[in-house]
Amino acid sequence: MGYMGFGMRKEDYKRKPKEALTRYKEVHGNDYVEIDHDPNAPQLSREEVLNKSKVRSLFEWKGFLMLKIIALLIISFVLLIKLLS
């Protein structure tokens, strides 16, 4: 009969899925804690939440621009000295 690829064998497509997170539920239970939200908190849309992220990327940091300029100046200075000597 020849090779039947993965998923074509009966033991693959008749397999039952594992119970997800049973060990976690046994230890911690199925209950979840309700979070009390501040009623005075501003109601932001999804786009506003994404734009007001507390973590700014490295490239948005103004100090990173200074580091790039300093590194470029050092590299150009070293290359200039090598060309003149």
Automatic annotation (TrEMBL):
TM regions (residue ranges): 64-84
Keywords linked to the UniProt accession: Membrane, Transmembrane, Transmembrane helix
UniProt KW Transmembrane helix keyword: yes
Entry protein name: Uncharacterized protein
Organism: Echinicola arenosa
Taxonomy of the source species: Bacteria, Pseudomonadati, Bacteroidota, Cytophagia, Cytophagales
